[in-house]
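Example 3.2
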Amino acid sequence: MSGATETGRSGPASSLTLPRGVTLYLIRHGETDWNAEGRLQGGKDIPLNDFGRVQAEEVGQKLLALKANAGDLAYLCSPMARARETMEIARQAIGLHPPSYHVDQRLRELTFGAWEGLTWREVRKLDPARAQQREQHKWAYAPPGGESYQMLLERVAPVFSALERDTVVVSHGGVMRAVLAGLGLEPTRRAESIDIWQGRVLVISGDRQACTRRQTVSAAREAAASILIQFHYAAFTGGSAPFLLSQPQSAAVHAGPEKASDSGVWVGSSRRRIQQRQT
């Protein structure tokens, strides 16, 4: 089995530490045509489509709603064109100089090697044995010529551990899943398949990283501590209502209109939703 290990099946062999006091604003790049077609992009440099550019502009406004002095944040980006275009459109939308950000090669997407450009249906048809192995051991399995999530975590962990101030990071769904697992906010079996929406901002604070267990929203409402992770939507006034992903035993939720999904509770949106393909 290429790249699979027993350690990778049960949890990340390496962890990720977000420095205390640092708040992380994670943004996935906007939609591409390959996203819309369900094709594995990985290391392929596919540009945003028109809807992805709209998402990038909107995510800038969402960031500004979260952080009025967004110009004081550090900005870090994947080297891939779809991420860089998202970053530059978002920065322009909030009045910042578009190209004034840093690029880190380690933030590129999880690579799929020989499978890139295919849909999962095509992968299962052309390479059924390996496709089944990945489904069974997704965290630790590396496709031919590609990477596993465990390998991705080892690549990106030093980037986040070295942050010195509140930072906006524009990257990819695979990178964000690795971060959630590396911080211990989600078990690998969930992180490897969790939906990472485009056009949203995932906020993680280094002051409150410890996550002891998942809670239902009803249980969380009865407690009284601050939210750990929030997906923020701006489809309604203010754009700051959170989506609860994970939090400690004592936590409070302050959310807007909610809609249940298989990933938790998502705040309602007036815009059409694009079904994101999992990597």
